Amino acid sequence: MSPVLTRPRPRSSPVLVPRQVVVIGVAVVVGIALIAATYAAVRSPASIDRLRVVNKTPYLVDVEVTRGAHDGWLELGPISPGESHGFGSVVDQGDRWVFHVTSGPHDGGEFSMSRTELTHARWQVTIPDVVETRLGTGGAVPRTLP
Fold first, then answer.
1. Whole-angstrom Cα distance, residue 64 to residue 75?
2. Which strands, in side-by-side order, build the sheet including 96-103?
3. Is 133 left (phi over 0), alpha (psi -120 to 50) or beta?
């Protein structure tokens, strides 16, 4: 007798058992959670595009800002007397923004504004008169312009 060649039977697709489906589902959920956690860890903090500070005092001042919890100060920078300066990409301080003003070694103290107040003021902050008074009584020297 001669050998007969036959085609092999086609293989059927493997069938997943319910346990395998659960394991695959858990792996997908864990993978998505890891991606989301990584994104949250590496993204930069929220920021405000532009914050303008107006200095109507006769003093060269340095301004810094923090949140209401006072858990770390962000240096904005110096502002010449009678001028304003726009600071870009300022880290969002939340619902309460606390500003601290100095002129050299002289402390002008703090003042705060709510996010609502800042929004209504179109993110423009004017250094209040009480800060000017504190600087003057503290011995700050007005800057004379040439």
1. 4
2. 74-79, 61-67, 96-103, 106-114
3. alpha
Which residues are 20's β-sheet partners?
none
What is the CA 41 to chain-centroid distance, rounded?
13
Q: What predicted TM-score, i.e. pTM, was given to this entire model?
A: 0.71
pLDDT at 146 over 60: no
Tell me, rounded to whole angstroms, the distance of Cα 51 from its chain centroid: 13
Phi and psi at residue 139, in whole multiples of 5°? 100, 10
CATH number of the 47-137 domain: 2.60.40
- Nearest by Cα to 78 from 100, 55, 61, 98: 61
Where do the structural domains in the chain lie, given as residue ranges? Answer: 47-137
**Chain position carrying tokens 């304003």:** 84
Which tens digit of pLDDT belongs to each residue from 91-108? Answer: 999 999 999 999 999 999
DSSP string, 75-118: EEEEE-TT-EEEEEEEEP-TTEEEEEEEETTEEEEEEEEEHHHH
Give the contacts of 87 (CB within 8 A, at least 6 positions apart).
50, 51, 52, 53, 76, 77
Helix H or strand E segment including 120: helix 115-120
